[in-house]
Specification:
Oligomer: single chain
CATH class: Alpha Beta
Bound molecules: zinc ion
Radius of gyration: 17 Å
Strand order of the largest sheet: 1-2-8-7-3-4
Number of domains: 1
Distance between the termini: 46 Å
Helix content: 25-40%
Amino acid sequence: MWTTLLDLVLPRTCPGCGAAVPWCASCAAVLGGRPRRVLPPPTDDASDVPPAYALTRYRGPVRAAVLAAKEHGRRDLPAVLGDALGAALVRLTAVSVVLAPLWLVPAPTRPAAARRRGGDPMTAMARAAATVAVAAGLPSGVAPCLSTGRGARDSVGLDAAARRANLQGRVRWHGRAAPPSGAPVVLLDDVLTTGATAAAAAAVLHRRGHPVQAVLTLAAVPPMAR
Ligand SMILES: [Zn+2]
């Protein structure tokens, strides 16, 4: 209830620049380009990471928006950010990097963290992305079939080795939310940092018979191809 009241009382300002709109056109334009390949991160498990694409580097207005959605309870932002992922999926499909039907799997979060944040932002982003893809004529569905189990800490502030240790074996599978048997999937995340989360999630999906066509994120910490 408090969240609802605050929603009514507090003005929604752009997390990127403070403009008096929830997410202004010039900050949104940062996510408007074509998705670019994230260069393989320099980790020893890079070979486990499916091809990863991102819309921008993790900085500036997009970093501010991701943090506002994830850490500061801006529940209106995931759907807006998800629109950009949807447009990116349409572009990736046009160049056959991914093939429809698109089964979108949100990157795993901790269920408790998701509840505290008033719903899982990644699932909200994936639903918005699917809506954009469907509007463009691509059959799409969202399969929130992964979570991180009890004991997994939030990965903020951990280095690559610590993230690997943190995630290893802690990605949980939820069969009731799974895509149809054998369906290839696209893994969606807000930020690709070391690739450890993507690698752990892809390993579980692969083991369950779902090849990962690509990982698509809003932003990447490692460099991207031109
Ligand atoms: Zn702005």
